[in-house]
């Protein structure tokens, strides 16, 4: 009831515009946003995409009826999800949203194609499942895939500038190709395979395009270079102009435009966030003297509603920040900052005494125990084990069969186990194994897994003649993984690790983007090249086995390189081929196998190279570049500073620079560790303390917002913060703000 009262005024005002009565709206809204519903949506999206693995041409063939029923089930789920979304969305907003129209069209096309294909199969007529190419639309256009749509918008907005650079690049390529035809066409040169060298203009264009990627260098140059060393100057000039200048220019243009359009999106999102907060304030406000405010009780209900996982202590901290003078209400300016406050991750640190201090107080608090714990807390302890890890790395590289090397492994395992036991003895165990203590969990799991595998392997070798190479491989891998721990001991390494952790969600976004592109090109590739190449075992006597089942590949680089498994005969093989094309190396040899039927098929591979390598990979590189810039220069925001000041005022704060041994226990949720000095123990009382979470736990959305907000000039931000505070709900939204941005 408390939650319903918070938004009842808003819903009542807009009730005529919704498609359902008021009570149903609440139930449908919370159900739509429930994590189970979101997870189920993603499950059926990926189930729909994975049908290509079981449909002809299939990796694991299933009857057409089975795959058809599964696809119909997925389409019904998508339609139900869309109807559900329509029930909790304004009618005019729903029908104006392009992504909803795309989903409906994709469902209709899929059902039409499925029906046609089913009818034709009754009469044994093979048909092309052309609707499979629209399946990625469901991954892109559902509301849960906002980040993927943002990436596609970045590509769409960047395309005009890329097009101009690409046209200049093609002009340069065509000019150099024409020069190559005139220079080498009449020399009667031959390639290493005995083929005419640079006789056909289109072949020259393609060979030089491949040279831009360096995949056929220096092979393409050698016939001319053998004829005259001076001809090397032509290829050197070509590589400088097209490989180094134009490819770098592509990255510069992609990065500049990506950053510009992303900054514009973040500006829109920041403006709309403030606008929505003011609308919420206007719905919840009450009159207090000469101003409107939100009462403390209602504010608490709101925070509990929008952030149900927030602890009571955290909510009280945010209330003390918003109601600094403890008047019992929150004014408009403080209320608008609530969204920023909730975006700052604050860790609640529970002060606990060590269990041994309660069970054996005399032993744990003795002079010898205090000395031992001070040694473990000292930085010298960390440095000592860093040296031990480096020495262990040397032993790992040495011959395992040497007895002393084998015995040394037990010594290193004993030292690592002693380290973990000493840390658990020194630091409170529940804090040591806190949910954010990645390196502590990593060390413990790696050491005990290595110990278990080593004992198991030694036992098997001593009791039987059995020698498991798999167990040995696991032991070797675990030994090498222990070296990763040293990364967090170096400040610059830690910055890189922070950046990598920060961009993991974005890597998932670009992974989804790559999945969309791969699915589309894989389906097209299977329709174009299915059956053109066959793989045969090495001892096969089948006709044309050496030519991958296609006589046209006789004496080709593709056949001689034994690339026969790189084909488009099923969905999995197609993905592997596309991955190889993304890496670029030897991609022209793979292309040779795909274009055995018609030379125009080369356009397929060139199109994939342009879309995936030149555009998408460069956008991904652009984000990584900006993420590193932010990581090296990011300072605390105003809101973070306000939170830290209030924490310190309340006497419940832990500053990051006070953290003892941060490399060892980064952002440890242990007040004992946070509040103790380097060599002595300060008495602690039980209670709560707070600290701002490390930058390594920020989400990609927060990173994007912080990425540009400091760079946006004040005069270019649209309405200032004070002007936004005075906006009324009736104020028109600027026409350049789209509904997608508002969402």
Protein model, in words:
It holds the Pfam family Ion_trans. Residues 39-260, 381-633 form the Ion transport domain. Its main location: membrane. It is a single chain. With 743 residues, the chain is an all-alpha fold. Helix content is 65%, strand content 3%. The chain has 34 helices and 5 strands. The strands form 2 sheets. A 3-stranded antiparallel β-sheet has the order 1-2-3. Strands 4-5 form a two-stranded antiparallel sheet. Strand 1 and strand 2 (291-295) form a beta hairpin. Helix 18 (367-377) packs across helix 20 (403-426). The protein starts with a helix and ends with a helix.
Q: If you compute it from the alpha carbons, what radius of gyration comes out, rounded to the nearest whole angstrom?
A: 32 Å
Strand content: under 5%
* Number of helices, counting only DSSP H or I runs of 4 residues or more: 34
The helix-and-strand class reads mainly alpha
